[in-house]
Amino acid sequence: MNLPVQPPASAYFITDEKPSVESRTLSIVVDNEPGVLARVIGLFSGRGYNIESLTVSETDHNKHLSRITVVTRGAPPVIEQLKSQLDRIVPVHRVVDLTKTAMGLGDDGPIERELALVKVAGKGDDRVEALRLSDVFRAKVVDSTTDHFVFEITGKGSKIEKFIQIMAPLGLVEVCRTGVAAMARGRDAAHES
């Protein structure tokens, strides 16, 4: 009787399993000076990772600090490596993974908001329906003519996506989005004290 030959057990057994890819929101506090954004973003592009959302603004004028909020997707070990490498860039003061911080506390995640301007052109029933739906989504009309509206809508990215999808058949012309602004829940702050 021939038994199948089993490969020897090895401590170096490699599987074909790929680590799960997660969406992460990172808050990066940096010096507000030329070239810092390019260095931070270069770390992502150098490793072939896409940035889904990017917002940057000065947050402390007296200390010359800015906050970069990045939404990206990647395997947890790679995100940890990116965070570690970001921490080593000289003008970076602090890197906080808002998604991971929230997961550790059992929260619903960081508070995330986005602003979008949505232009819709239409007449007749489509125009009336666009106005009705904008009221449901609490979108504000910021410009109007006889043949178009520009709506301003704020909220989670999923809300904005849904609003855009609903406006598409009613005459969607153009969309401009700010990107995600995010903050951790609770008492902790992402900035340097």
From TrEMBL:
Pathway where it operates: Amino-acid biosynthesis; L-valine biosynthesis; L-valine from pyruvate: step 1/4; Amino-acid biosynthesis; L-isoleucine biosynthesis; L-isoleucine from 2-oxobutanoate: step 1/4
Transmembrane segments annotated in the record for this chain: none
UniProt EC number: 2.2.1.6
GO cellular component: cytosol
Quaternary state and interactors: Dimer of large and small chains.
PANTHER family, A to Z: ACETOLACTATE SYNTHASE SMALL SUBUNIT, ACETOLACTATE SYNTHASE SMALL SUBUNIT 1, CHLOROPLASTIC
Family the entry assigns: Belongs to the acetolactate synthase small subunit family.
Protein name: Acetolactate synthase small subunit
Organism: Aureimonas ureilytica
